[in-house]
Specification:
Bound molecules: adenosine-5'-diphosphate
Number of strands: 10
Strand content: 15-25%
Radius of gyration: 23 Å
Distance between the termini: 46 Å
Strand order of the largest sheet: 4-6-7-9-8
Oligomer: single chain
Largest sheet: 5 strands, mixed
Structural class: alpha+beta
Amino acid sequence: SGRMTLLLQVIPYGGEQTLLLSRDISHLERLERMRSDFIANVSHELKSPLTVVAGFAEMLAEDHAGYSQEELSRYLQLINEQSLRMRRLIEDLLTLSALETGGDTPVEERVEVEPLLQTILGEAQALSAGRHQFSLLLDEPATLRGCASELRSAFGNLASNAVRYTPEGGRIDLHWQREADGGGRFTVADTGIGVAPQHLPRLTERFYRVDRSRSRETGGTGLGLAIVKHVLTRHHATLEIDSEPGHGSRFSARFPAGQLLV
Ligand code: ADP
């Protein structure tokens, strides 16, 4: 909003005089609001699985003989699932915070694109467990300048999202191509549920999800695209999203020529 908040400071300025300073602090208020929203979100995201874990653990501790084998294994499975959910969230939070405190530039390594994409493909296929068809197309071998683990996490998030938001029987295509200007582009195209245009601008915000329950059911933390955005920005790359609800999405990471090694 265009609202302005002025901070007035009255400073004694020799004898009878005072100096009045005013500064617009609306951006500080906005930052503070974002910070407290973030903490509220994190707390909420951790609290719901913790409630499940604590509830079942307490129940089992009170009367451990009173349950059948099936009941026991169902409860333990729930405890397990919810613990994993908390762990994924904490891992993503640590990744984000490392990105935020890691300085402006990532480690500079030579990252071979082909083996990186093979790894991403393998992980996505494991997550899919045979429910989707995959292809990997690499127009030519390429080497990126940047941090291998950050790029792996960014590309991996795009590929796992494609799996998670594409119904069984869909296709997921991974593609690396060189661009006319010497840059390069990594694209993940899926035939999944797509994203309506009004959601696109907010998709990379932390905890922004189109469908909270679908994200949860498929193991989402709501932080994946925020991590992608951060990693790409640090590599001077941009994220492009084209999507058609009900038909599928294309998420591309576009690297400028300067990030490619020949
Ligand atoms: P999440 O853990 O919820 O998947 P992300 O930050 O990775 O969090 O993604 C944010 C939201 O963007 C998701 O909740 C989902 O609504 C949408 N989204 C991301 N990738 C896709 C995709 N390939 N197809 C459809 N929707 C997607």
